């Protein structure tokens, strides 16, 4: 899967193949989290667009797009396998001194 204009690549594997690489059992994402993958957005609009795409694809937006600390805007979502992601736009011009 390619993410963003910078062509950030995320490799997706079937569970059996993944468990052979990791040599661990697979986490039940309904009961626990194994990772939170954060990606950068270029604008608030990009955060909103990604949240909509997640919904359209059947993912779960567990933290809708919102402002945080006056200079960050982001959302949290889970993909179809329950892995948690965060997308965040940081407006450094509003960063408190």
TrEMBL record:
<protein>
    <submittedName>
        <fullName>VOC family protein</fullName>
    </submittedName>
</protein>
<dbReference type="InterPro" id="IPR029068">
    <property type="entry name" value="Glyas_Bleomycin-R_OHBP_Dase"/>
</dbReference>
């Amino acid at each position: 899967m390619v993410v963003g204009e910078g062509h950030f690549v995320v490799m997706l594997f079937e569970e059996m193949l993944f468990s052979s690489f990791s040599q661990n059992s697979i986490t039940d994402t309904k009961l626990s989290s194994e990772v939170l993958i954060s990606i950068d957005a270029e604008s608030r609009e990009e955060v909103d667009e990604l949240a909509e795409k997640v919904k359209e694809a059947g993912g779960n937006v567990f933290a809708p797009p919102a402002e945080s600390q006056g200079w960050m805007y982001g959302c949290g979502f889970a993909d179809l396998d329950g892995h948690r992601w965060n997308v965040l736009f940081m407006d450094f011009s509003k960063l408190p001194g």
